[in-house]
Design brief:
It contains eight helices and two strands. The chain is mostly helical.
């Protein structure tokens, strides 16, 4: 038994974990930040040992990573397992957990889809304004039949030439900026919900 342990130690020293595997472990470590240090250390040690064994058996880093779930999903599975196994779940924590999933479900079903749709709509509006500005510019300098049927109206006035292009670009910038802010707000809400969930898990472990 001791001889086998010595051999495995020697084999591990002969094998080096690639940068890709190290990055994977770093990402898992980051997603496990809400777990107690001792449990997180055990998980990472277990993963590292598994990588060593698979490398020694002849698998490449690419093959190992191809069979692994994403670092985020793997960390989530470990956190879920730890939460389920814990026997220190208080009534207060349970109430917080139920309350969190109640309002987070409402946000996922109503707020996030609305913000996502609004962000896409704002981006498309910006593109349309830019296209309208270019068409107004062309209409002011080039006589094209199909452009005569198109009017770029701004506060009761039809814009043509340079003025149409400037107004189109300004509106495109405004809509694009609002779209970016809305998109970032959507991402920020999603990250907040994820971190809040992990925080509740951590307090119950």
């Amino acid at each position: 038994m001791k001889d086998e342990e010595k051999r495995s130690d020697i084999d591990m020293k002969d094998v080096e974990i690639s940068n890709d595997l190290e990055k994977y472990l770093t990402h898992v470590d980051r997603y496990l930040r809400y777990l107690p240090v001792s449990e997180k250390t055990d998980i990472l040690s277990e993963l590292k040992s598994s990588f060593y064994e698979r490398l020694i058996s002849g698998q490449s880093s690419e093959e190992i990573l191809a069979k692994m779930p994403s670092a985020k999903d793997l960390a989530g599975n470990y956190i879920d397992d730890t939460f389920v196994k814990t026997n220190k779940l208080s009534i207060k924590t349970l109430c917080k957990y139920i309350l969190f999933f109640s309002y987070s479900s409402l946000i996922w079903l109503a707020v996030i889809p609305t913000l996502f749709t609004l962000a896409i709509g704002l981006f498309l509006s910006g593109i349309l304004c830019f296209v309208a500005g270019i068409m107004g510019l062309l209409k002011g300098f080039i006589n094209i039949s199909f452009l005569d049927k198109i009017k770029f109206i701004f506060v009761y006035y039809e814009l043509k030439g340079i003025s149409a292009l400037i107004v189109g670009i300004l509106f495109a910038i405004v809509f694009a900026t609002l779209g970016i802010l809305t998109w970032r707000g959507t991402v920020a809400i999603i990250r907040y919900l994820q971190n809040k969930k992990l925080s509740i898990y951590n307090k119950s472990i």
